[in-house]
Amino acid sequence: MYGNGYISPEETAKQKPDPLAGEDLQQLALFEERIARGEKIEPQDWMPKEYRRQLIRMIEQHAHSEVIGALPEGTWITRAPSMKRKLALIAKVQDEIGHAHLLYNAAETLGKSREAMINDLLSGKSKYSNVFNYPATTWADVTVIGFLIDGAAIVNQVINAKGSYGPYCRALERICYEESFHLKQGHDALVHLAVGTKEQRAMLQDALNRWYRPIIHFFGPSDKASVHGTLLMKWKVKMASNDDMRNQFLDQYVPKIRELGLDFPDPKLNKNAEGVWEFSDPNWDEFFATINGNGPCNAERLAVRRWAEEHGRWVRKALINPSQKQVLPLS
Amino acid sequence: MKSFDPRVNRIKPIEEKTEMNIGEAWEPYEVFHQKKRGDHHIHVGSVHAPNAAQALLFAKEQYGRRQNCVNMWVVRTADVTQFQYDDADIFETAIDKEYREAYGFKVRDKINAYKKQQTESK
Amino acid sequence: MTPALYNFILKTADDCFILGHRNSEWTGFGPFMEEDIAFASMAQDKIGHAWLLYKMLDENAAAAETLAFKRAEKDFKCCHFVEQPIGEYDFSLMRHFLFDHADQLRYEMLMNSSFEPLAHFAKKFKGELKYHTMHADTFILQLGNGNEESKARMQSALNFCLPLALGIFEVYEGEQEIISQNIFAGEKVLQEKWLEKILPIIKDAGLQMPDMATLQAVNGGRHGFHSDYLQPLLKEMREVVDAFPDAIEW
Predict the structure, then answer these.
(1) Per the CB < 8 Å rule, is C142 touching B10?
(2) Which residues of A touch C241 (CB under 8 A)?
(3) Superfamily in which the C3-243 domain is placed by CATH
(4) Please, what is the Cα angle at A171 between A167 and A176, to 5 degrees?
(5) What is the ipTM of this complex?
(6) Hey, is the C-beta of C236 within 8 angstroms of any chain B C-beta?
């Protein structure tokens, strides 16, 4: 699961005024022609430095999001309330770790080692999807994450799977296939609460209330100006605007909540005559505060990952093979 | 602070800086997976492992977990030799090599003409 | 089904259920991503096996849920070994190695069981169990022969685990009946086979086997006397179910 439509502000600020400075224009033209023809870029190809930098950042953030995303749902892994839910949740969280693994490999083909990526996660230098900085406080949260966060992630990932970088597309193809199970199991568990006792239903509504804002935040704020026609769009790194993806998500999923007689806590949430979803101001200040480390779970998420890395170190070290070579995965 | 995750409450999460050292993620192996007997092994991705035996185990989990599989190969990425994409033009051909394609050989017209000639001469 | 057979199946299932539950805790916490995935797979296999066995005890679908989520602690028949918290990876790995060899051998023996449903499952579980021991052996051999730290950790994990592991083979009520009816050849036979199987691997891993004569098996589980860890485990597992007594489905 994840959405990486959002490009974090400090990165945007860091972006050089001329990201193409110093590039070989002839190579650049060939590179852009290839993308325009719908061909994929492979790791060994020439590519502009800015393309490489943006992709590493994006795929790496996606990978971190999978690894951190395993934590909020994992919160309920020992407490899932039936045999089937228990098995499905273990399998689902396991898949998220599997996705992280695929994505770290895809990012690594661009030249950044797995160790370096994990270190940037642990130090807080590299971001992950903001949505995972919120706690899963009840069992119903697991169903909301499984259905709606995974649903949002699928919207994002299906779009990104049409991007230009071969290894990322291949990873996403596999991920999307597995996400369809995640979505189904999430929906199934959510529906069981919705049609269950009034206490089960109340727990679900409470979870929907708490997750509404993080869900609206999921795709990030409106892109400044139009993203259509920007370099990242032209290079097929970014495939759709944040608003477009959010709109597609709301269009698909709001009806699926409303058909259960449930709703989100926003009287303004509505589709207008032009088919565009409108909603109340979701307080983007809260979003920026959270992504910059001040959300309810940022510290815990990273501290748990540090525990896992620190306590696993002796295993990794003991397995090091003196003849191992530092090379990049092929594709 | 108490976590909502009982597993987290059983450990002492670490606030201080922690780093992975280079080499702790070992080295990549490429994974080839065979769906059923009779099929080719197909490249499906890579795993990081300290040796081939371990790479096979990891490959089984990552690439055999969710799909049919009867066999797998792993190969050290460092041992793979490949062409450069820059040299992809060596696969292009200047002339249409119809002399090495089935469609490059059409004798039906000749046979028909011959048959017609035979009938007419009778 | 005779009480002896019921008891035999129940304790076999409880071991797998509780160990699967424990191992699922590693998901997201393992020493590297590949091990998170592996422990999660093996946890699913174990819980899956337990689920099938619970269903064998009572065909009513809800009965398996009751056995897992409503049964009193004293009615569980698992050994203390599987109840222990996951601790550090060295303990979890050694437990996985010692338990899974016993588990694999148990089902190998059950392939010839006179009780057909068990023989059927034994054949069905074969591949998964083979993979579990393959996974365990690979790591035990690597870490036992690894560096000073990993050797020391593996050795102390082995020393700590062995008395607990012997609790797997505790005699249970009705065992004589199970043996005489050719359902299962017995825990004593299993323990002998198990030792024969693990000793060479332990040796190849460069580890020292403690003197078996000095070891005292940690027993009690087969008779419903458990370690201090089972009750909190069950309480945690049932937190959601317990909080919604009227809920019928999840």
Answers:
(1) no
(2) 81-82
(3) Ferritin, core subunit, four-helix bundle (1.20.1260.10)
(4) 145
(5) 0.97
(6) yes
